[in-house]
Known about the structure:
Elements: H1 4-18, E1 23-25, H2 31-47, E2 52-65, E3 70-83, E4 102-112, E5 117-127
Antiparallel strand pairs: 1-2, 2-3, 3-4, 4-5
Signal peptide: 1-20
Family: Belongs to the cystatin family.
Pfam families: Cystatin
Amino acid sequence: MLLKAPLLLGLITLVSDVCSSDFVDISRKANHFALGVEFAVFHFNQVYPDEYAYKLLWVRRSQRKQFTLIYLMELELGQTICSKQDEDLENCPLQEGLREKKVDCTFVVDIRPWLSQFSLLNSTCVQK
């Protein structure tokens, strides 16, 4: 019986480590993270009530939830002069002067690459 107690304690410790919900820093260039950023910006443009499209300016934070493909990203987006229907937003110039707008957003995206499925779990944006 005494031999089983340390084994049980070790198993409980292992399970609590595996079930941890902590996010860890990852490279901004990580393959699935980059896809998640594209999805988040696309989703933002679909739901944000503005006639102009926004594009990525800067990734402030890039993290992944341990043992999952759930990503936490803090992004700075800038308003472009292009409409949301334009195809090439990456090459679209930003608004300047009085029309310039920037938004700071935090997104949590769950990615299932084997199904080509992306889910936005949470998003919060604040205009600067």
